[in-house]
Amino acid sequence: MKGVAVSYPHTPGTPVLTGVDWEVNAGECWVVTGLQGSGKSALLETAVGLHPNVAGEVRVFGGPVAAPGADAAAQRRRFGLVFDGNGRLFPGLNVFENVALPICYHGNQSPEMAAPQVNALLEGLELTPFADVPAGRVGRSWARRVALARALALRPEVVLLDNPLIGLDAVHLRWWRGFLPQLISGHPLLGGTPRTVVIASDEVRPLLSLGHHFALAHEGVWRVLGDRMALERSEEPMIRELFNGTG
Amino acid sequence: MDASPTSVAARSGTARGSGRLRTIGSPFRAAGRWLLGALTNTRRITAFSLITLATLVTKFGSASRVIRPLIQQQILRAGVRVLPIVSVLGAALGVVIVGQTVQLLLQVGQIKLMGPLLVNLVVRELAPLSASLMVLARVGTATVVELGTSRALGEVEALEALGVDPIHYLVLPRLVGIATAVVCLTVYMILFAFGFGYLFAFLRGMPMGPAEFFGVVTGSLEWVDFPLLALKTAGFGLMTGIIICYHGLAQPIRIEEVGEATTRTVAHSVVACLAFDALFVPIYMLL
């Protein structure tokens, strides 16, 4: 991203975060932190091409981010985006169908044909007991895990997670803290290949050990903070506040 | 600043004058606003229709194992599940229109007009309109709420993030389902209307057997009535489906705006169906 400004979808044209100069290389793990409403989610959604950027240039996989259309579908399949909250699951489908949808759609498969791949994902993410449960009835912590399974269904090269650890109970938090390092280094479910991971989070402390690089979105301004050492050394009040927050 | 009484009077006179102009102009301004709004809506809905058409052409047959079951689901929802209420409506239409018309024609000794009159009233006008309005009321409103809520809650973006085309996945099955349902339900409604209409008229003493009655009615049908009926009902269904999906999906919507979008959908669909219906009047007049 070069000189990028992003906006929320409901206020297009009004930048919420400006001056984003950001380069993410393959295999890196970035943690983007900032207060709520600082534009982290808008940044992730702009990066995958869901919303147009207000200013600047967004390039992904060496080319410009695709406009809606067939190319966009091909490009978006290389991203796995886990939305915040309940992960924006499709409430009319059950857990199995939510995870199977991208596989069936892109591979023109029936749910039965996609079942081995979907079941492996559900098993790997400990979601098998929920397979037949309508997505709307799954609790938030589990729903987020279903959203992760859905995002990983197409074996994306880049995984973007929007506030994955917010509001989780201790058991789920422990699970995520165990899963994310495996995702970065190469999870067996994804063929053991390392993934590029971008995590947007209100809290930075739980992600200290994960992130290779850290960035801050604050009061509409983007700043790359550097690595963990740089973050820990920083005396800036905002960064100290995020650092010492609730983690 | 000039504060003399004359200038104040002049100013107030001007103000009164402009106020009067405003009063006179306000209905025109309101009409102009309405017209501009209608044109804008028409342009947007047309653009949405073209996008949908392009999606239909470019993605025809793709992801068929996902899309076909969705189409079946929508036909079941918009067609099969609406069948009971359409049967009741068809029966009511039969009693009210067919039965009474036959009675009236018998009273005035013009029973020979029965066939053309019933074909015009029921086959060409009332059944297609009633079926499409019934589908709009029973399925259309629920669909707008469903799509609008999905859009407001960001589920459409979730689809896009997975590389799933929302027009292909959400709009096309609904469009095909609604259009198919309107075509089929119109045929059912015509059959029910004539069946119950005949029964009512027969019980009221009409001296005509069922074979003769249906022979007169079918004899009044032109061959062109069949393609025209198919065209009209498919048109009603497609237009209703497009308007439903447009209001639910095509523009950013907040959850509190879903109700208003539903109301707009009903109004626009009714106007569109009536306008489309009017296009057929010259054709029928030539028959």
Give a brief outline of the structure.
With 247 residues, chain A is α/β, with parallel strands linked by helices. Chain A has helices at 40-47, 70-76, 95-107, 111-124, 140-152, 170-185, 228-233, 237-244, and strands at 2-7, 15-20, 29-33, 55-57, 59-60, 63-64, 79-82, 158-162, 196-201, 213-218, 221-226.
**Assembly type:** heterodimer
CATH superfamily of chain A: P-loop containing nucleotide triphosphate hydrolases
Q: What composes the largest sheet of chain B? A: none
Low-pLDDT ranges of chain B: 1-13
Characterization of this structure:
The complex is a heterodimer of chains A (247) and B (287). Chain A is globular and about 55 Å long. Chain A has 247 residues and is of the alpha/beta class. In chain A, the strands form three sheets. Chain A has a six-stranded mixed beta sheet, with helices on both faces. Chain A has a single domain (2-244), classed as P-loop containing nucleotide triphosphate hydrolases (Rossmann fold). Chain A has helices spanning 40-47, 70-76, 95-107, 111-124, 140-152, 170-185, 228-233, 237-244; strands at 2-7, 15-20, 29-33, 55-57, 59-60, 63-64, 79-82, 158-162, 196-201, 213-218, 221-226. In chain B, helix 4 crosses helix 7 (210-219) and helix 8 runs antiparallel to helix 9. The radius of gyration of chain B is 25 Å and the shape is globular. The A-B interface holds A 9-10, 45, 48, 50, 68, 70, 72-77, 79, 81, 83, 87-91, 101-102, 104-106, 108-110, 113, 150-151, 153-154 and B 58, 62-66, 150, 153-155, 157-165, 169, 252, 254.
SSE map:
The complex is a heterodimer of chains A (247) and B (287).
Chain A: E1 2-7, E2 15-20, E3 29-33, H1 40-47, E4 55-57, E5 59-60, E6 63-64, H2 70-76, E7 79-82, H3 95-107, H4 111-124, H5 140-152, E8 158-162, H6 170-185, E9 196-201, E10 213-218, E11 221-226, H7 228-233, H8 237-244
Parallel strand pairs in A: 3-9, 3-10, 7-8, 8-9
Antiparallel strand pairs in A: 1-2, 1-4, 5-6, 10-11
Helix pairs in contact in A: 3-4, 3-5
Chain B: H1 5-58, H2 64-78, H3 83-108, H4 114-152, H5 155-161, H6 166-203, H7 210-219, H8 225-250, H9 258-286
